[in-house]
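Render this sequence as a predicted structure.
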Amino acid sequence: MRRRPALLPLSAMATGLVLAMTGCATGGSRSTQAEQAMYAAVSKPLAAPASLPAGQKWAGGQAQGLRIALPERWVVVPPAARHKALHAVGLGQLKPAVLDAVVPGWDSPGSVTLADPGAGGGSGVQAIMSLSCAPAGLPAGTNALTGLNTLAEQEFTAINSSNAQLGQTTVDGHTAVLVYNQMSVGTANVTALQYAIAAPGGRTCYVTLATEKEVPYMPMFSRLRPAIQVLGA
């Protein structure tokens, strides 16, 4: 089911989006519960942790324009292996322009791609995450929130999502939107989760996760938000 994205105020985000999802969820109760947990967590104004949580490490840095605390099992994917990692999570058959819409900046020189082999530490890739920043690209005459909303709608159109949603939030004190896409790519059913952030210095920064295993990653993705730091001027 395709939904028209709608911006909701922060206080209404969890209730509004969860009610919208409940009426026509197709992924079963586990998927619906995971979505509810994600939206509920991301609607809360959380303070950044005082120190790096145990069992986590920093990914990203000044070159990317942001950094994020991730579980230690996540590994950096070398640029030459990024296509293989994208293929492992079901995105390998996308046309280049569509892939750029799903994972903005994934192949830019300053970006970083990470892969999660899963809690069992296997050799397969369960999810990938991309960190990148670029000149804002917001439509002229729009404020940060409206501009991010417009970019997300353009992303939904390019991808032709089967289920597309977005909601207002903040990341490191900056205006942001949580973008949620479900799409069919060949025989794969892929979920893409993203924070699009209006960053200082006229930039838009992206933290994007893609996976075919949406249930464990939706609430996990929302819990990452307090430890995302936007860097640079």
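Summary. Residues 1-27 have pLDDT under 50 and may be disordered. The longest helix spans residues 144-159.
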